[in-house]
Hints:
Blueprint: H1 17-27, E1 30-31, E2 34-35, H2 40-52, H3 60-71, E3 76-78, H4 80-85, E4 97-99, H5 107-122, E5 126-130, H6 151-164, E6 174-179, H7 185-190, E7 201-207, H8 209-216, E8 220-225, E9 228-234, H9 235-249, E10 253-256, H10 257-262, E11 274-275, E12 282-283, E13 288-289, E14 291-295, E15 300-301, E16 309-310, H11 312-332, H12 338-347, E17 351-355, H13 357-363, H14 371-399, H15 407-410, H16 414-417, H17 421-430, H18 444-449, E18 464-470, E19 476-482, H19 484-493, H20 511-522, E20 533-534, H21 541-553, E21 558-559, E22 561-562, E23 572-573
Parallel strand pairs: 4-5, 5-6, 6-7, 7-10, 14-17, 20-22
Antiparallel strand pairs: 1-2, 3-14, 4-13, 8-9, 10-21, 11-12, 15-16, 18-19, 18-23
Amino acid sequence: MKDTHRVNSGPVGLSQPISEQIWAAKYQHKTDGHCHDHTIQNTWSRVAAGLAACEDGTQRAKIEGQFFAAMQNFQLIPAGRILAGSGTDRHVTLSNTFVMRTLPDSVEGIMDTLKDAALTMKMGGGIGFDFSTLRPSGFRVEGLDCPAAGPLAAMDIFDATCRMLVTGMGRGAMMATMRCDHPDIEAFVMAKSDRTRLRNFNLSVMVTDDFMEAVEEDRTWSLKWEGEVTRTVRARDLWNVIMKQTHSAAEPGVLFIDRINAQNPMHYRETIAATNSCAEQPLPPFGTCPLASINLAQLVSNPFTKEARLDVGRLRSLTSTAVRMLDNVLEVSRFPLAQQAALAKRQRRIGIGVTGVADAIAMLGAKYGSAKAVFLLGSWMQTLQNAAYAASADLARERGAFPDFDAAHHMQTAQVQSLDPEVRALVAEHGLRNATLTSIAPTGTISMLAGNVSSGIEPIFATSFNRVVTRPDGTKETERVMDYAAMVFGRLYGEDTPLPESFVSVADLSPADHVAMQAAAQKWVDSGISKTVNCPEDISFEAFKSVYRDAFDSGCKGCTTFRPNDVTGSVLST
């Protein structure tokens, strides 16, 4: 066996062909055929310099060095927009996540929002909308003889606009939400049963606590417009419509919107009704939030031995660096709209998450979804959240609290109350620099950049798999990709040595395993989590519905499932 201490030491390069391809296609800085980033280390240097540019001259070099050191071994990975845009003169935003204005129920308002959305997507932002504010299809429009076209007609216009826009850094991505008491909710749920429709949208239904109670107690449910009941349905019938559609097509997702608002640290100033395109970031109108992820797989020493440990001290220091880094993003980034810039500066939301979780768990000898894995993830996220709030309080001492900070209200939020006493004391003394601090993104692309570590808090898909890659010219190729932890094990013990039992893949897990992991993390995340609960193709409909009830009862803020079938298909195969 080789020296286990050195597996994750020293500068880490691009370890798989897929990592090289992603870097070259998405993050290597090139202009007019000229290459500025010759190596991934050049990319780290560019990003670090760009994000430290707002620092005081006396400490700029020091902070730039800290940023570079955190990134160079793929321990701290900023989100894709930051990697691609920081330190360049591209007219892009460094934030992936946006929610647009509250949609006005008028042609003028819809068109104004469409323009705002186009400008945001053009600069690289993924966006979310709440379509609950548009009058139902067929309702009377004052001053006109024709009936209202309804929310879905407006969504078609937004979808066509997104399809038209090409940013050069990835296609547009949008989230549409609708309340469970909107009169057009069934049509919204079924909208993508036409597989050619709304291809640039993810859909999520905002489900209230009252609705979940009505389903549980088999009560009726009122659909309303402007406070007036338009129709009454059986709650379980509506729930079954939602469940049958997502059972067959993996959409819509479900957002537990009352919990999202109750646990929003800024609930005393705003009401949230939408998320970004992947749902990890519930945001108010004009809200935005830059993201970064800490790669836990790179923090494990002595992997696959009894001495295996995750360096909790390094997790704390990386979190502190990430807070400063993302706060700097808010200073140096362009914003598509003045309203987005203004709210970003008033609230200074940031989102620090994790990736490589399943790989780290396997390296420590635990099985994803087990009681030990649930405990480990919860303890890591608790450490991260405490470190993030402590760092934000320290930054508030240096730079000032975010302008919308209200100490009397903020100190009573669930997040602050859950902090360790010494961290709460720091917040009480200095306030916070950032309104929100933690969020777990899907991290699919940056995880492959980092050697194909497991994405976010997702399990290992498979220890090796075939991935269908679409080339710039539109052609498709299939290539073999290895899981990072499996690759490390092979280097240590030989590629022919059977993998230990701690390696479990999606096929080995129950939906309950997924939900348990999501709930363990959500307890220590002040924003949201992008997570897919994989279900077996032959899961019964009743068992499928229970996944959503389990997620609700476990404290999750939402639930998204995937069941392989002829409709959903798959881009990956083992």
